[in-house]
Amino acid sequence: MKSRDERLGPPRARSIGLSRTSRPSGLQSGCSSRAPAWADTLRGVPFVKRLVGRAQVREAQSLALLCALFGVALGITGGVIEPVGAIGLAAAPAIEEFPPVLPEPAGLTTGADGNVWFTDYNGNGIGKVGTVSPTTHAIVEYTASALGTDPYAITSGPDGNIWFTEGFANKLGRISPTTHVVTEFTLPSDVRGTFGITAGADGALWFTEGGSHRIGRIDPITTAIEEFTPSTSTSQVGAITSGPDHNIWFIEQGALARLNIRTHVISEFPLPSPAFSLALAVGPDRNLWFTEPDNNRIVRFHPSRHISSRSFTQITVPSSTTGPSGLVAGPDGGVWFSESSGTSIGRVNPKNLTIAEFPSGTANGHSQAITVGPDKKLWFASEFGSQFGEIDPATHAVAEYPPVIPHGPTDVAVGADHNLWITENGHSFSPAFRYPDKIARLDLRTHALTEFPVPTADGQVDAITSGPDGKLWFTETASGRVGVIDPVSGSIREFTLPSANAHPEDIAVGGDGRLWFTDAGAAKIGAIDPATDVITEIAIPAADSVPTSIAAGPGGRLWFTDRAEAVLGRVNPISGVIKLFPIPSGHRGGDIAFGPDGNMWFTENFPLKGIAKIDVVTKTVTEVSLGPGYRAPVGLGVGPDRALWFTESTPYGKVARMDPVSHAIEEFAVPSGDSDCPGIVAGPDGNLWFTEFGAWRVARVVLAGRTPSGFASG
Q1: Is the CB of residue 303 less than 8 Å from the CB of residue 241?
Q2: DSSP bridge partners of 131
Q3: Element at 315 (helix H, strand E)
Q4: Could you tell me which of 195, 174, 159, 99 has the C-alpha nearest to residue 129?
Q5: pLDDT over 50 (residue 64)
Q6: 210, 360, 495, 512: most buried by Cβ count inside 10 Å?
Q7: Is beta strand 688-692 parallel, antiparallel or unpaired with respect to 680-682?
């Protein structure tokens, strides 16, 4: 893999054919203008740099710009053009992901069946609800609604069914926990956002209609729907619950309101300070409690019948900017809350109003919903991390499922221990969504993931390769370092590059046994001797060069691509001489690999053409037309079947196989969809492995009949 997005901006500006534009705020399947909640984590995603070049990505004004770029049809101006052949495989291989594809949970509740139920806010584009078993931790999902409906709030109904809102479908949903049959009910008003749902003391389901500024009621027996409008009819409505007085209480923008369950009269109580909340619950002290995410507070309200006794008590969370989100009364007499921007689960003591916070574990926080599970533990969900967790209210012990997720996996390599080694780049422009950089090992027999923190904070690890010394070598694009990890001890050493603008990206082993890397910031090709740690750098004979990907070719020579110049470069590792070979069409190269036909193959990612090769003898460049529409190839490698395999970026989320002789191409959809897959490698288990940066997964393409003995095939 080889070219990735640099995340701190270029060391110097270089024009590569487009005006300087800003980074996109998020990437989403279909180039939708409505970015998902986790979009901030994709700012500076590694593959973007391969697609439009670093100078453009640094200042991209909008997602629309990238979408427009991806859709541009551009012709070839030179070289040899060859069309795609017929499909090359008789049957599609299976694609498996590790950890398995998980939801983006938004709401949680405990069902009568003894499971924890959740809404999958994204659901890979399809509305879903699902269950987590508190004993086996197995996760099962059920399609609940059509594309783009975004199930959000969820509760267990008095009829024994699970009821949920569909945020943007103008509907409510109901699923039977025994038959799993889903029924939807269309709301009479144009709701445009149902944010809360609760079971009332009258046996009905009550819900908020955010867009129409109303409170709704549905009878679970007759399914008749009624709507009620607060006096402040333009106020946004959010969380809702059944109060200790058996009335319906809900949050408005700047007010707490009560709907009398018998008369349906609505009374409003202004909040002490402007706030809005999507979490409201009755505490063990029979008071109302709600969160104020923007104010970093938990608030208690006394719903006394005597007006003089009604009061608000505001409690500030000790940690700053935690964004308290979900809230529930715990079985231990405390009020528990999740932190959408923090790293803990919190508990308020209702007696003395003190707050204690407990680290939520490897998901690094960002928890949304929280509920009491059937096991009397506090269950919480991380919408951004796609993890479920539970905390014991007595011991405060935390467990998460799955236990480890690779945050921001960029590249993957096979180690001398026959396991996969992965770089995890956790960088985000927002500190709230930033994760520590790590090197991870995936055991191919057990599929267990073990992580090793990189010493330099936010160095932005990038490429990784196995060295001749049996260790794994990797680059750190932001810190200007090259690192090495011992697969036995897990110890990591780092080496600072000598150039002031060092920005190492890709790394590969040369014929001389040294580790060679591209230095995009200094316009150099460098090498480090694994025996002596001596670093050498060679200037590229091109004024505006931005070397990107590098790979060893015939005779141990190193070949590299350049995303600023329409050239391919070749380095003699013995003499240090660099030669440049023009790409006649004027396209820039992305990833590069030594093909099974003895030639060097590379992706062309500006202006997004496709796949090309250079004959290492004649230096003729041949470009393969990828047919109608467009594909944005990112990672490129050779599979165990000796075919060329490449990953495709947003909005495709696919891997593709190309016969290097006939150029026949077949594509395979990645289960998690819009995954952004930058790294790809042939595994020792006979399968093809790739990283999913956007989905926080590592996946494999199972090639039938090619699994060597001793490796797990399932």
Answers
A1: no
A2: 117, 140
A3: strand 312-316
A4: 174
A5: no
A6: 360
A7: antiparallel
Q: Burial, 359: exposed, middle or buried (Cβ in 10 Å; 0-12, 13-18, 19+)?
A: middle
Looking only at the bridges linking them, the beta strands covering 344-348 and 633-638 are: unpaired
Residues 201-249: tens digit of each pLDDT: 999 999 998 777 889 999 999 999 999 988 776 678 889 999 999 999 9
User: Which positions ≥6 away from 437 have C-beta within 8 Å?
Assistant: 423, 424, 425, 426, 427, 453, 454, 456, 457, 458, 459, 460, 461, 476
CA pair distance 125, 105, nearest whole angstrom: 13
Buried b (16+ CB within 10 A) or exposed e, 273-294: eebbbbbbbbbeeebbbbbbbe
Alpha-carbon distance 177 to 211, whole Å? Answer: 30
Distance separating alpha carbons of residues 634 and 70, to the nearest angstrom? 13
Q: Give per-residue pLDDT as tens, 250-301.
A: 999 889 999 999 999 999 999 988 888 889 999 999 999 999 999 999 999 9
Long-range contacts of 148-153 (CB under 8 A, 24+ apart): 150/106, 150/121, 150/122, 151/106, 151/107, 151/119, 151/120, 151/121, 151/123, 151/127, 152/106, 152/107, 152/119, 152/121, 152/194, 152/195, 153/106, 153/107, 153/119, 153/194, 153/195, 153/196, 153/197, 153/207
Determine the Cα–Cα distance for residues 203 and 173; give it in Å rounded to an integer: 17
Section 668-673 average pLDDT = 80
For the sheet with 472-476, list strands across it: 461-466, 472-476, 481-485, 492-496
Give the DSSP per-residue string, 225-236: EEEE--SSTTS-
Q: For the whole model, what pTM was predicted?
A: 0.66
308: Cβ–Cβ under 8 A, 6 or more apart, which residues?
Answer: none
Q: What angle do CA 431, 434, 435 make, to 5 degrees?
A: 145
Cα–Cα distance measured from residue 216 to residue 206, given in angstroms and rounded to the nearest whole number: 6
Q: Which domains does the chain have, with CATH numbers?
A: 80-96+405-702 (2.130.10.10), 102-401 (2.130.10.10)
Q: N- to C-terminal Cα distance for the chain?
A: 26
- Give residue for tokens 């422009």: 429
Count of alpha carbons within 13 Å of 67, Cβ hemisphere only?
14
Give which of 223, 218, 174 is closest to 200, Cα–Cα.
218
Residues 418, 468: Cα–Cα separation, whole Å: 14
Q: Are 425 and 433 in contact (CB under 8 A)?
A: no
- Tokens 């020792």 sit on residue: 684
Contact 518, 547 (CB under 8 A): yes
What pLDDT does residue 389 have? 87
Token pair in block for residue 603 = 């992706």
User: What are the backbone angles phi and psi of residue 350, rounded to the nearest 5°?
Assistant: -65, -20
Q: Nearest to residue 566, comparing CAs of 539, 593, 548?
A: 548
Q: Please tell me whether residue 455 adopts helix, strand or coil conformation.
A: coil
| 612, 658 contact by CB (below 8 A) | no
Model confidence over 462-519: pLDDT tens digits? 999 999 999 999 999 999 999 999 999 999 999 999 999 999 999 999 999 999 999 9
Q: How far apart are CA 678 and CA 248, in angstroms?
A: 50
The amino acid sitting at 117 is W
Sign of CA dihedral 349, 354, 356, 357: positive
Give every strand in the sheet of 214-218, ordered side by side: 197-199, 205-209, 214-218, 225-228
Which strands, in side-by-side order, build the sheet including 324-329? 324-329, 335-339, 344-348, 355-359
- Higher local confidence (pLDDT), 551 or 88: 551
Structural contact between residues 421 and 466, judged by C-beta atoms closer than 8 angstroms: yes
**Residue 699 has which token pair?**
């996946």
